Give the backbone structure.
Amino acid sequence: MFKWINRCLTSLLMLAAVNAFAINVQDPYQLVKDAAGKTFTRLEHDASLVQKDPNHLRTIIREELLPYVDNKFAAYKVIGKELKNTTPPQRDRFVSAFTDYIVATYADALGKYDKQTIKVEQSQPLDAKKEVSVKVTVLDPGKPEINVVFQLRKNSKTGEWKVFDMIAEGVSLLASKQSELGGSIRQKGIDSVSSMLEEHNRKPATLAGKQS
């Protein structure tokens, strides 16, 4: 079920440069390259720690990649129309659980990385756009190319861009979570779904599927 998600998330993590640099949050195209490059540099540096404790992958994701993901916006989109029926503490709990879920999912994808290369499209004029799609191509030896689109939105107050969705094989990660979790929120309530996510997040990270 999550095969395409893992490949999609892996592509964000393994983009281009591997040198340490400041993240350019004013250019969505450069942001995707920079954040992924910084994450990959950290992965290479902490490889021995990851081998000893795969949960360290989540630390890498949380510290290097999560700052450039608009997790609150994505979480609220998942809650959808039920947002008006929730209290601030319920929303805060769900955002926290959903954020940890994103971190765990990204960490699982990172643990499966094995020699893929990425080609990101050239920067395009932004004009007055508030949302941008950045297309990348995942190149995996012996396998067909995979086109992945990263959706980013611009914060109207800070002017910074952040990722809020990824689309692979025509399927939106955010839309799939809206369908899956949003339906459960309507049927079971947001507290039940938060508990489900929290239980999922307690599962340890794994390097299963990573080839040498």
